[in-house]
C-alpha cells in the first residue's frame, strides 16, 4: 500500500506539472503583460501617427495596455537596435519603417543590428506614397517650374527629408540625378520636423509621406506638385505622378509594419498578426488610413516577411546603382538581402 501511495503521489505530481505546462503554453500565445510599441522617429511623423492608431485598437483586441514610445536617433537605427536586443516575448514591438528595416542594410550594413537577422516581421500596416510638396506661396506650381527655378537660382533649391536614407531623401536624390537640377539636401530628425522645416521656410520643397502632409495640403499651407508612386493617389487624384511630370523611374514609397525581436514564439507572432489584421479590417481604421493616401493590404507574417525581402532587394539595387559610386555615399555596402 505504501508503494502504491508513493506511485499515486508521483503520478499526481507529474499530472500537475503537465497541467501547468499546458497552461504556460496557452499563456504564451499572447504577450504576457503590457505591450510597448516603439517608434524609432520623433513624434509628428507617419510612424508616430500610425503607431497611435494601432496601439489604441490593439489594446482592446489583446485585452491589455499598449503604449507608444518614441526612441529617435540614427534615422531609426537607435530604436530598431533596442528592439533587436529586447526579450522575444511579444511585449516589446517596433513600428518598423522603410529606413531602419531595408535602407540601412544597403547604405551602411550593420548599425548595431541586422533587420533580416534580429527582427521578426509580424504584419504590414500600410504602404504610402510620398508627395513632392512646396509651400502654398512658392513661385512654382509644377515640377517643371520647380526645376526651372532650381536651374535659374545661383544656389539652386534646398529639399528637406526626415534624415539620411529615408525615402524622402532618396526621392530627392533621384530627382537631382534624373534631371541634373541643382538641389541640395537638408536632413532633419524625422518626417515631422522636416515638414515643419518646409512650412517654416528652412527648405524650398520636400518629399513628405502623404499621410502626414495631406492635412497641410488640404488646409492650403502646402501644395502638392507630384506623387512618387507609380500611379496617382486616390487622395490626390488631380496631382500627377513624377513620371507623368516628366521625371522617369522614381517609384519610391514609404511603408510601415510591426516587428518583434527575432526568436519570438510562433504562437505569439500569429496572435499579433491576426490581431493587427483584424484592426486593419475595421472600417474606421481603413477610412483613416486609405483616406490619407495609404494602401492597406493585410498579410500573414510569412507574406510580410517575403514583402520585406523583396523591398530589401529593391533598395540594395537602387542604392548600389544610383548612389554608392558618389563620394557622399562612398561607404554604402549593398548589403546582402538574405
Account of the protein in words:
This protein has 338 residues and is of the alpha/beta class. The radius of gyration is 23 Å and the shape is globular. It starts with a helix and ends in a 16-residue tail after the last helix. It has helices at 2-27, 46-62, 77-84, 98-107, 115-118, 143-152, 167-179, 191-199, 210-218, 266-280, 283-290, 301-322, and strands at 35-39, 66-70, 92-97, 119-129, 131-135, 157-161, 183-187, 205-206, 222-227, 253-261. It has a five-stranded mixed beta sheet, sandwiched between helices. It has a five-stranded mixed beta sheet with strand order 7-6-8-5-9, sandwiched between helices. The protein has two domains: 35-128 and 254-329, D-Maltodextrin-Binding Protein, domain 2; 131-227, Periplasmic binding protein-like II (D-Maltodextrin-Binding Protein, domain 2, 3-Layer(aba) Sandwich).
Brief descriptors of the model:
globular; D-Maltodextrin-Binding Protein, domain 2; disordered N terminus; alpha/beta; 338 residues; disordered C terminus; 5-stranded mixed sheet
Summarize the structure.
Helix content is 45%, strand content 17%. The termini are far apart.
Q: Helical region count? A: 12
Q: Class of the largest domain, according to the CATH hierarchy?
A: Alpha Beta
Work out the count of structural domains. 2
Order of helices and strands: HEHEHEHHEEHEHEHEHEEHHH
Number of separate strands: 10
> Outline, from the CA principal axes?
globular
Q: How far is the first residue's CA from the last residue's CA?
A: 63 Å
The proportion of residues forming helix, as a percent range, comes to 40-55%
Largest sheet: 5 strands, mixed
CATH superfamily of the largest domain: Bordetella uptake gene, domain 1
Query: Whole-number average pLDDT?
Result: 87
Strand content bin: 15-25%
Radius of gyration: 23 Å
